[in-house]
Amino acid sequence: LLLLLLLxxxxxxxxxxxxxxxxxxxxxxxxxxSVRKNAVVVIxxxxxxxxxxxxxxxxxxxxxxxxxxxFYNFAERGETPPGYGAxxxxxxxxxxxxxxxxYWDFACKNMAFFAGEQAARTGRFERCxxxxxxxxxxxxxxxxxxxxxxxxxKTVRFHRFETNFTQPLxxxxxxxxxxxxxxxxxxxxxxxxxxxxxxxxxxxxxxxQSPQAILLFARKVCERMLRIDxxxxxxxxPQQYLRxxxxxxxxxxxxxxSRLALFLGLPFALExxxxxxxxxxxxxxxxRIRKNKSMQDALASRPDAEWEHDILQLEPCAQxxxxxxxxxxxxxxxKKI
Length: 337
Fold this sequence. Notes:
Blueprint: H1 2-13, E1 37-44, H2 50-60, E2 64-67, H3 84-88, H4 101-110, H5 116-122, H6 124-129, H7 135-147, E3 150-155, E4 173-181, H8 184-193, H9 198-203, H10 211-235, E5 241-245, H11 246-251, H12 253-264, H13 270-282, H14 293-300, H15 304-311, H16 315-323
Parallel strand pairs: 1-3, 1-4, 2-3, 4-5
């Protein structure tokens, strides 16, 4: 009995377990489900299907608030971007920089709050585009964020602003991470066709169309994706994050929607959410993105299988294929860029 009392005393004085912001409702310290919100962090590289994944999420939960990632121009302006926690708990709207053009140019195009009949009637969307949001607009925006059942943050720049998950991302939320991946060469090819690697090539004084620049870019992307996967595996429990493949999402969107719903604890019925997801896919038209002609020609100068063979000689890329469960043997044919 004395031994049991001693063990109880030691345990009661022990610090709380790390990462308790990922605990399940019902555990000690967890907020009731009626109070907690879903916070979904979608981590992906560009051209991996993250936009389509967001559209699926909005069909699973109508009360979704999509959070933009307003980071890409802050560094150029010498400003400190808001952290992921500030985005997920909606406090980013209290920051002075929130009305800067670099933020709202992105936000106006991606937030449902600025679309629809009410926004058109009040002129809110036009004010957003002209960087002229009023105090009332910002107040209503923050309320929409706070009241949303699910807040979704898509980050394609996680490698620049990554967190080690040792601090709560959103103490009032049930936070989950979705890591969306795509076959590395298909993703790299799509990125390079948009000239995303030009700055890297310039920094190393390489012609962007050269094999050296292409392989250098491939190595850098493979290394950071490996780092993200390692970070998630190190700090999160398997039930706290979900890895999805772009190819599975495109080939069977209903299965992806069902897996997401189960992962996030959302209802899913084929006659309701399933029909909405199917309707979304049937009516989805992705905007044409202007590609770089010289890069398209450079990438088309060799068969895809040869390019992929070359990047598989890079150890980080070969390791990434294995970690993400992609076969090392190039497929007999590749999809268009």
